[in-house]
Amino acid sequence: MKSSHRFPLRRQIVWGMRFFTILTSLAVGAALFTLSNQYVRANSLQAAEFNLRLVATSIETSLESADALLNWASIDSTVRRYISQENINGTQTIAAYEAMQEKYYSSTLYSHILRFFVTNENDRHLQFGPLNSSAALNRTSVKQFLTKGYGMQFATDPLLPGSPSCIAISQPVRCGKGTLHRGSTYLALDTAIITDPAAGYSLTDGSALYWEMGSRLWQIENGSLTEIENPLREVDYTLRTGSNNGVTEQTAWQGKVQLDGQKYYVVKVTLNGRSAALVQLLPANTFLLHYGVYLWLVALGTAIIWGLSFLMQHWLERVITRPVEALQKRIETVGSGNFAPDRTVEWNNELGDIGRGINQLAENVDSLMTRRVEDERRKQELEYRMLQNEVNPHFIYNTLNSIRWMATIQQYRYGGDLEIEVSRIESETLCRDCMIPRFTLQPLVENAIFHGLEPKGGHGSVLLDISTDPDTGDVLLRITDDGVGMPPEQVAHLLDEPAEGAEKAEKFRHVGLWNVNRRIRYSFGEGYGLTIESEEDVGTEVTIRLPYQQKGDTHAADITGG
């Protein structure tokens, strides 16, 4: 039967191809846009990093020259003798002065040096630089240069009021094994060692170049340094590393920051061994200037995808949709019960193989169904006979013993105290017309006598009640005894399959109940079988539920009267 909500294959292919084309276009466009964005951004950031590294290298060269000058002043024997010996003559003083003068004028930093001196921080000082308006050094003024300790820092010259900030580098002079403090060396450089290398630095609109030292920040602009409030303290930097001859080395730091509602990228290159760095700020919208070409590429790629999609759709309809519809009709024909082969669906391709398979399947289904029905019938008969064979010896044994036991009572023990009778029959037609499987009542009556009445002395009654269920019309046979009864936990397992290690007498009772219940359910279904109710010292009631089977009805199982 065809559903009114079917979604035909042709429509699925059409809409599937359109949906696929749209998704592919979006995916390709997004991928190209993302890749171009990443490419442009990565190239821009790498270019900024490279340019910053060039400027940083130039600044590092100057600072290394400054370190070399200070180191020379700290270790030169003539200068150290001048500031460390207690008694010094004029010749030694002149020699130390000339040595420092020669080093000062020969330094590559000569044009950038604002002040250069070495001192024992008491009464001996050697000083050079353009210091015409400076006060002389003495024990008190020297300490003003060293109030912030040794190292590199931005400072103003305390003896040149109104002078611009400079880069001050100082270090101690030690004698002996490096533990005895003899004095200090000091070098002040103008900020041109930073601004000159950055003079030709190219910045895009909105970009900015900074010099960062410690937690302070200066903007490099128009050949000068201007200290500003540091907005980059909270930037979450990521370290980029590179490899040089298999050795991983630091290249630069990259991060992002939001300033005045605008997104910026930050590139920072630190100077080796110093707490200083060059920082460039690049606005994120700078990269959008390069996207025009990539957008044209995205549009061209999308158009090509759509054209290929329509060609693919036409081809799929010819080689798949139409053959599949023919196969569908063939399957519907087979499903309706017509198993005759149809050779028109046996094309010379894989779908033709399916058509040949459907034809072969149709030829085999009929014989397979016939064999299946016959096998099931034989299987049911075999299992039923196995159950019948299993219970027969037990019933024969019980029947023989019942005859012997009942005779002995009659003669010696109970006389007429044992009563077995039909207490009620709802309708005589039930006894006359209804059929029940063989060996159904016998084992239940025997169980009532042997296991219900015998343990209490053999006297009592076994009553049989025959009626029908008014709701379902099923036949109900109730066997009731007033014997010793059973506890609930025993009743709960009476219809389970008997365990191998059970005692003989208990196993006989268990096998009988389980076998009868199993045969009834096998013959008529899970809704039929035995129901057991029992109470200790009161008695037991077993109810057999059977379908109303009249004489002449047929059933897979053997239901001849028992």
Automatic annotation (TrEMBL):
**PANTHER family, alphabetically?**
SENSOR HISTIDINE KINASE YPDA
Q: Out of the domains of life, which is the source?
A: Bacteria
Record-given protein name: ATP-binding protein
Which Pfam families does the entry mention? HAMP, HATPase_c, His_kinase
UniProt keyword annotation of Glycosyltransferase present: no
Residue ranges crossing the lipid bilayer per the database entry:
293-312
Annotated coiled-coil segments of the chain: 358-390
Q: Which GO-annotated molecular functions does the record name?
A: ATP binding
Listed A to Z, the keywords are: ATP-binding, Coiled coil, Kinase, Membrane, Nucleotide-binding, Phosphoprotein, Transferase, Transmembrane, Transmembrane helix
Q: What is its main location?
A: membrane
InterPro entries annotated for this entry?
Bact_2-comp_sensor_kinase, HAMP_dom, HATPase_C_sf, HATPase_dom, Sig_transdc_His_kin_internal
CDD domains xref list = HAMP (cd06225)
Compartments reported by the entry: Membrane
Q: Which residues form the HAMP domain?
A: 318-370
